Amino acid sequence: MGDEDQAGEALLLARVRAGEAAAFDELVRLHLGRVFAITYRVLGQREDAEDVTQEVFLAVLEKIDSYDPARPFAPWLHRIAMNRAINARQSRALRHTEAVPDSTPALGDEPDVAAAKAEERERLARAMLELTERQQLIVRLFDLEGFTSVEIGSMLGMSDGTVRWHLHQARERLRRALAPIEKEWKP
Question: Is residue 35 pLDDT above 80, yes or no?
Fold first, then answer.
């Protein structure tokens, strides 16, 4: 974030602290996507992630006076989101959706292509389950959501180097677990 962006965000945060509703709306608009991405990656259910995302912004509004304006805002916000999502996952059962009836028309790929993709996704999901919970989360945040190792470290309370080490270890394990796929698909 550039100096101008940081100054603009500092002014926005000062307006939020002063109780200006429009400023809080703008703050939510600016950070909603990233906060939802964090909560969704931790919880894996859209509805639960939406609920926790709302909780995160309510917590931010309640705790805005404890935020240190001398520090960057996004890591503070992301840490709240990560903690709330982890707590939600640990403390309540996630909602389950109902199965789609067999009579529903199929959309998308041809059946053989869809089956191959489903098999690949299933293999990847099984390989991901072989990772530690922390490694799974780091891979999802880094590779799927595009967070940097510094941002992930801030969210998880660990150093940038430790995040990169976990990411490296996770990728190595995934390569080994998925290696048979490469052998099967090569002509």
Answer: yes
Contact status, residue 181 vs residue 116, Cβ threshold 8 Å: no
pLDDT score of 187 more than 60: no
Cα gap 32→17, rounded to integer Å: 19
Task: Note whether 115 and 165 are same-domain residues.
Answer: yes
CA 107 to chain centre: 27
| Assigned domain for 123 exists | yes
CA distances from 88 to 110, 142, 150 (A): 38, 21, 24
Does residue 104 form part of some domain? no
* Rounded percentage of the chain residues whose pLDDT exceeds 90: 51
Nearest to 75 by CA among 170, 155, 15, 184: 155
Report residue 87 as tokens: 């707590």
Query: Which residue is associated with the tokens 């059946």?
Result: 111
Q: What is the pLDDT of residue 110?
A: 76
Q: Are 175 and 147 a contacting pair, CB within 8 Å?
A: no
The CATH number of whichever domain residue 39 belongs to comes to 1.10.1740.10
CA 26 to chain centre: 21
Maximum CA pair distance of the chain? Answer: 65
* Phi, psi for 158 (deg, rounded to 5): -140, 165
